[in-house]
Please model this.
Amino acid sequence: MNEEMKIAIYGYGNLGRGVELGVRQNPDMELVGVFTRRDPQAVKTLTGVPVYAAEDVEKFAEKVDVLIICGGSASDLPVMTPALAKCFNVIDSFDTHARIPEHFANVDQAAAGSCHTALISAGWDPGLFSLARLYMNCVLPEGKDYTFWGRGVSQGHSDAIRRIPGVKDARQYTVPVPEALERVRAGENPELTTRQKHTRECYVVAEDGADTALIEKQIKEMPNYFADYDTAVTFITEAEMKRDHMELPHGGQVIRTGATGQENGHHHVMEFSLKLDSNPEFTASVLLACARAIGRMHGRGIYGCKTVFDLAPADLSPLSPEEIRAHLL
Amino acid sequence: MNEEMKIAIYGYGNLGRGVELGVRQNPDMELVGVFTRRDPQAVKTLTGVPVYAAEDVEKFAEKVDVLIICGGSASDLPVMTPALAKCFNVIDSFDTHARIPEHFANVDQAAAGSCHTALISAGWDPGLFSLARLYMNCVLPEGKDYTFWGRGVSQGHSDAIRRIPGVKDARQYTVPVPEALERVRAGENPELTTRQKHTRECYVVAEDGADTALIEKQIKEMPNYFADYDTAVTFITEAEMKRDHMELPHGGQVIRTGATGQENGHHHVMEFSLKLDSNPEFTASVLLACARAIGRMHGRGIYGCKTVFDLAPADLSPLSPEEIRAHLL
Model:
């Protein structure tokens, strides 16, 4: 890996912009360009990197080492990732948990069949949190783990509120319940309901004359998204939304408690936590570290679909094996 | 891996006993026996597993998949691990940081030359904390990381106190300074001196008639061990030592703070923490998870010396790739 790794971005939203900025922090990488389904002339990148039409992407097959696909999990990635894995080494951040086995199989077939290497479901959850759960489960086989998310903006929940008639804009924060976190950290191994783990805070800009009481009721009773949670709805002005809610912070904890010893008398608590000012920029940073590993695996002739569980940690690092042993072990 | 992996223990102290108990939590493993340099007749295991003389270990070369070497880093492991790697797949918890490159080279030569697979420096630090540092550095290239240890018993420091004339017994706790931890978590990126990061608490049983003032002075002024720290010395009775200080708790934190974005305006905090009732039992649990990976790598013909950085996380798990994708991703 003496030559710079050539990265390209497919899809230019918050995540794509995060990748664009993140490449600058990785001196062993070079950004070839951004591919967009919009009119390339109308897209201006943050760093001046060139923009190309998504339909032209295959022309760049020989010029890109790893293509980072920055699309949505609902409808984009299930189609894009298998299609692009036929021409590129690819990475996505697919996070629809129930559909991972199906997505994995589709991407694996496309990548393996064309001698490419693909990574799905990278980021922080799935991604770093998945790694934390795996390491913790392996080290403490007899235990129980918990994942808490927040305080942070859930884009999916924000979108769900925006679809309600009379809503102009909305931001939803997922918030872990402090008492639940404390009980878990204390090793109580509590059984926690959905409602006991997280609350939901919604900030809503209503259209002029909209029935705010009805909007609040529709939010709080929305199945899957809000009905199982204690939800707080606050109506704010457009100016307040712009002033207080334009950032996309997030974070959370993975905690595993377990026991060892003669009578399992010794208790242990393992915790991995993140507190992020920008969810998309941090996710992008994870994707870039993973891109390094995928490029290297491809260079070794390891093809097909991978997850973070398959990446040797050393392959994520720009440092040599000697350097990481000397400085990080 | 349908057959049980055959594990053996070389060296039967606190860590060896931890491995013995830990095997029971891993249904895909079987404990062949314990090897000791003491008289095997005089050693009684906790679970009734057979005890053999260390000098007979080579006779078991065909009966053991992975040998876990539970010796000290100062004088045992630099000799034992390379010697045993000629006949076995081996794992140790070598933790003398400055000597890791030399130890790695010696073990690599022995293992590679005899088609064995070896892992050095496994445990939690080095080990899980090393992994945390690596992942964090790869994900946030522009940042700063900190490792705090404790509150926990440092065996090396306890031993150093016991060597002072007039000391009958001693226990030393390493304690992180709460204000330092808070400043790091707040993203202040402080430059911290040794003294600002940790304090040392010593509990000492003096011999009858010993000069406790002199002992206290000798502890506090001991170079490398205590002179650079704020150290508290408390004299206690033998009964108090037995009542309050027979456990070996430990733990700590790895924290990395870093920034991303246009002007590096978004800050992120990553933290991995451990709170352990029993340092040796937890370390043993890590070694066992690593043994699984080393056994599998050997089965694939991957030989030589490895560190935790080289182990694909999936190889640590008893679950199949499909299962870990479905349940942990």
